[in-house]
Amino acid sequence: MAHYKFQVKNECSPVQNLLFSDCKLAINDLTNHIYNVPWDIILIDGPRGYFPAAPGRMAAIFTAGVLARSKRGGVDKTHVFIHEIAREVEKLCSDEFLCRDNLEETRENLGHFVVSKRTAARGFEFCTTPIHLSHRN
Questions:
Q1: Domain range list for the chain
Q2: Which DSSP string do the residues of 39-101 spell out, in sequence order?
Q3: Which coarse location class applies to the principal site listed for this UniProt protein (predicted)?
Q4: What are phi and psi of 114, to 5 degrees?
Q5: d(Cα 115, Cα 103) in Å, to the nearest integer?
Q6: Which of 62, 96, 120, 126 has the fewest CB atoms in 10 Å of its CB?
């Protein structure tokens, strides 16, 4: 998270071309056509993150947030589902990159966010409402 906070106005911005991203959180080694699809739905259920040696879902959640905001064509909104939303890393990253204001509902262990596409001109922050980590529920 420290790297993201330091690089949010550069490599880790919410609207970008992930194929050429130098952000450490960006997944940019998928098949090239993945980045050109105007995704309507993204489901994140991996990689594993429940034990210390597992990579966790921080990069997947960051990448989903960027894909939703950077998409061209298609409908304006992307539905992003996060499995195991109650885990600390998934909740923290979802709040930061998908935004608590975009949380539609949580059922059992699945969070449903609706994220709108936008232009880079709207700023460098992922969320319009800042997150105060000390006041999280």
A1: 2-135
A2: -SEEEE--S--SSTTS--SHHHHHHHHHHHHH--SS-SEEEEEEETTTSHHHHHHHIIIIIGG
A3: Golgi
A4: -120, 115
A5: 9
A6: 120
